[in-house]
Task: structure prediction
Amino acid sequence: MTPAPPSEQRLRAVREVDRAAADLRRGLPVCIGDKVSAGVAVSVETASAADFREMTMFAGGPAQLALTARRANVLHILPSGHPVQLVPLDERLNRDLAAEIADPEHDLSGGLRGPFPQVKDSPPAFAVAAVQLCKIARLLPAAIVAPLAAGADPDSHGLMTVAAGAIMAREADAAAELKRVAAARVPLWDAENTRLTAFRPADGGLEHLAIVVGDPPRDRPVLTRVHSECFTGDLLGSMKCDCGEQLRGALAAIAAEGGGILLYMAQEGRGIGLINKLRAYALQDQGFDTVDANLRVGFETDERLFAPAAEMLKRLGFSAVRLMTNNPEKVAGLAAEGIEVVERVPHSFPANPHNADYLATKKSRTGHFL
Ligand SMILES: Nc1nc2c(ncn2[C@@H]2O[C@H](COP(=O)(O)OP(=O)(O)OP(=O)(O)O)[C@@H](O)[C@H]2O)c(=O)[nH]1
Ligand SMILES: [Zn+2]
Result:
């Protein structure tokens, strides 16, 4: 079922989310919430001591570190059952230590830094949204938050204000309103008769590309690959994963069939971004597998949404696919977004010494058909 397009008001809100994410990346505080419950937040990763001080000028209560439950678990904070866990800052757990414990780079070298107290209460909406905004900004999923002081006027000090609900709804809203922005013929070595079409999400975020080989008929299931961007594998030829082979192999297979589609999704690192993927790779260097590494950085195993891929297929006139994948979640994810997956076409390549463990983990922990 195609979701109803978001209203003008929601689209405006979604664009504000992107602006607020950009502010977090610069280290600036942002105000999250509405008149009933609002907070101020900075990214643990990017805010300097001065940015943090600026944030506290708007605070009407104690500052707290907001972490994902995944990261809190790594820090041995007792689970509270909430997806976001708050930890009060105090003399010992100051901004510097907060930044250090949010970053898995120091896990094994920094010694034991706990125990940290558990806040049992469910976190306020602004704290949950602050962590989500860090994810949207492709930063470490950790924020320092505080309730907004009564009578504070963040607007007049140039702080962005964004609704918590807009942050949480942003991915769905942005996918529902993809804009086709450019298209051109691009002959490829593996598939000469190829056309690229770029789709821009409503929030102004990164574009996804549809690579259409030949002119596949719209009334039959189309051979399709939904490929998530992998800078290291696709571009550099990294041996740590199978992405490069899957990308080129899919284009060659589609061309050999006479036509099909490759969707190149701006969802690097299963949606966590290149820098966080490098953080996960550093943990893999220390012996963690691809799943545990993601969890230790503070993310879910896979943070991708399939709505944008499904929407692109629909916009191109396709409703049924033969999907080249080994990932059962991809099949289910597209189906849940209204695309009929009539067949799963296996898409695997021989392992090499650097990706054998990665492929084995996909099979044993994420249920890949390999
Ligand atoms: N976070 C993280 N991302 C990774 C890692 N290795 C590869 N990736 C990313 O995973 C994505 C690869 O996804 P896909 O090619 O769609 O692979 P898949 O989900 O296993 O499914 P199929 O290839 O279709 O079977 C790319 O965005 C890569 O950047 C890793 O160790 N950690
Ligand atoms: Zn890869």
In short: The chain has a mean pLDDT of 93. The chain has two domains: 8-172, 178-267+304-365. The chain is about 40% helix and 20% strand.
